[in-house]
Amino acid sequence: MVLVLLVALVSGCASFRAARLYGSGTDALDRGDPGRAIAELEQAAALAPQASEIQNHLGLAYGAEGREAEARDAFERALELDCDNHAARENLLVLRSRTHP
After folding, report:
1. How many CB atoms within 10 Å of residue 89?
2. For residues 11 and 66, what is the distance between their CA atoms, to the nearest angstrom?
3. Contact 48/81 with Cβ under 8 angstroms?
4. Of 32 and 9, which is predicted with more confidence?
């Protein structure tokens, strides 16, 4: 989260807004409100399409709503953006193990 905020401060208003949406979307996910999380994280992803962390959290939110195909796509996008995103890799493996026993 700190990295996203730092990038936002350096990159401008759209990135700052993306960082705020990422934070509020993540908070909504933590509170058990995946619908709100998806709405906020989708907006953040539109403003910061190269942010792997946003894609990973969007995948978690989709998964919490039972939207497995969208979750898989978000985790895969997170890994395309940053192949070292270990959280996204683990989340994708967990999702695949649940959907393909």
Report:
1. 16
2. 34
3. no
4. 32
